[in-house]
Amino acid sequence: MSDAPSQRSALHAIAAFEATKGLAALAGLIGVLDLLHRDVRAVVLTLIGRFGLDPEAHYPSLLLHYAELLPDTDVQMLLILASVYIALRFIEATGLWLGKAWGEYLGALSGGIYIPFEVVHFIDEPSWMNAFIVTLNTVIVGYLAYALWHRHQQQGHA
Q1: Backbone phi, psi, residue 31, to 5°
Q2: What is the 3-state secondary structure of the chain?
Q3: Which has the closest alpha carbon to 2: 78, 99, 85, 146?
Q4: Is the pLDDT at 3 greater than 80, yes or no?
Q5: Residues in contact with 150: Cβ distance below 8 Å, sequence separation at least 6, in sequence order
Q6: pTM of the model
Q7: What pLDDT is attached to residue 158?
Q8: Which region among 10-19, 60-69, 133-142 has the lowest average model confidence (pLDDT)?
Q9: What is the CA radius of gyration of the chain?
Q10: Cα 95 to Cα 102: distance, rounded to the nearest angstrom
Q11: Rounded distance, CA 148 to CA 76, Å?
């Protein structure tokens, strides 16, 4: 599939997006690990106050809820799960960047797994952002499925 420049560009764009998700997850993991050595609730309350947010509002209260859970987190499990996610994103990005079929399979599978959960989340909490996420992931998975189909068709006629 990655013969045409436009197809290569699309795979490169998806690869860059996946690598960005991996970098964001890595930054998030580093931030969470740094917070483990602090009074997380106090840090969150300071942030909420600095931005003039209502601690009782949905997102600030959600943040406070997770801040209270963080000290009891199984750090080893968090490291393992986050490391697997980050590695998966970078491996997928590499395969897509290089135009490899395994990268397309990995991307379609790993993205496709999330779609049912994203749809349920959208149904439970409809918003433009949730609609955008469902749409973007569906387009990416659809494109990768098309790329695999196209690759298969080319190999069948070669």
Answers
A1: -60, -45
A2: CCCCHHHHHHHHHHHHHHHHHHHHHHHHHHHHHHHCCCCHHHHHHHHHHHCCCCCCCHHHHHHHHHHHHHHHCCHHHHHHHHHHHHHHHHHHHHHHHCCCHHHHHHHHHHHHHHHHHHHHHHHHCCCHHHHHHHHHHHHHHHHHHHHHHHHHHHHHCC
A3: 99
A4: no
A5: 1
A6: 0.81
A7: 60
A8: 60-69
A9: 20
A10: 7
A11: 37
CA 108, CA 128: separation in Å to the nearest integer? 24
Summarize pLDDT for 102-137 with one digit per residue, the tens. Answer: 999 999 999 999 999 999 999 999 999 999 999 999
The mean pLDDT of 38-45, rounded to a whole number, is 87
Residue that has been written with the tokens 């990268």 in this structure: 103
For residue 73 the two structure tokens come to 């987190």
